[in-house]
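Next up, sample data:
>
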Amino acid sequence: MTEISQQRPRPLRVLAAMSGGVDSAVAAARAAEAGHDVTGVHLALSANPQSFRTGARGCCTIEDSRDARRAADVIGIPFYVWDLAERFREDVVDDFVAEYEAGRTPNPCLRCNEKIKFAALLDKAIALGFDAVCTGHYAKVLVNEDGTRELHRASDMAKDQSYVLGVLDDRQLAHAMFPLGDTLTTKGEIRVEAERRGLAVAKKPDSHDICFIADGDTQGFLSNRLGKAEGDIVDESGAVVGSHEGAYGFTIGQRKGLRIGTPAPDGKPRYVLDISPVDNTVTVGPVAALDVSALSAIKPRWCGAAPTGPGTYTAQLRAHGGETEVRAELVDGQLEVSFTEPVRGVAPGQAIVLYDDTRVVGSATIATTRRTAAAAAAV
């Protein structure tokens, strides 16, 4: 098994997605240094870039496009800006709002990778004759002897980003290149490499927030889109303990910002257990009531052949979360998952990504969860 990189028998025509951050700039530089014919492209994802975050956040601002262009000039590669604002609004922003309105918790970065970087961008790249799309993600694509490809975790688990790539299918993996995937260095050393290469983004801060929410206030963003919708906060018995201005402003497992006027009988903190957009209520209760023993997930996507029969895997439930052992099986097109040990704070709308050691098996969107007997009793 080999990595998809400069080991290919011929130079590739590579389209490097350059966000304006340090990782994508170094990835593009490495691809060019490996002898590939690289063209840089920055994705304009907002019809009004001034409304997106400013201050060098590394994603969607006018400053980012300028930083990406300067990096391309230093690397010595052609550079273009592609307008995907309408597609981004439809597939990422509108989906984000709709999911919260339905009481679910989406991951917009995962959706962007699926719908924008490895669907809209890749389709356009292939139509223009490019062989691969290169990004600054920390993950690896390995090539088997029969030519099939596998997506694996990055060599450095501390920087691994395979979770948000778990939506990629066979065709997309065949055209994906991640030059940073085998980097066993700290982020500081990536910055040193960028500085050595003369890239001005070497000291640019990383982006951690949702790029299309300018001030980082997710609840305020949703309120502007959906309007205020006052409702009740209830406890496990159904007794009203507080009020809210929109159920969409809460997530399963949330503890802070509940504004509950009535303390719990035991005096302990309460957490969001359930969000019901139908009657606009938010249910809160003790932390033990968050324990989940199993879940069902829809819209599975496989990084290779779909698994047959039940199997034991490790699963990741959040972009920066740890692994947990699970038993999973595809039943009538739906992924049924049971946990070896209970997990907490699992919310519908999140993605579950399955792994076989370091190999990404695939992902699915959590539809429903089943609480442990103790958690159910607590509710």
Observations:
- The longest helix spans residues 108-127.
- The longest strand covers residues 359-371.
- The radius of gyration is 22 Å.
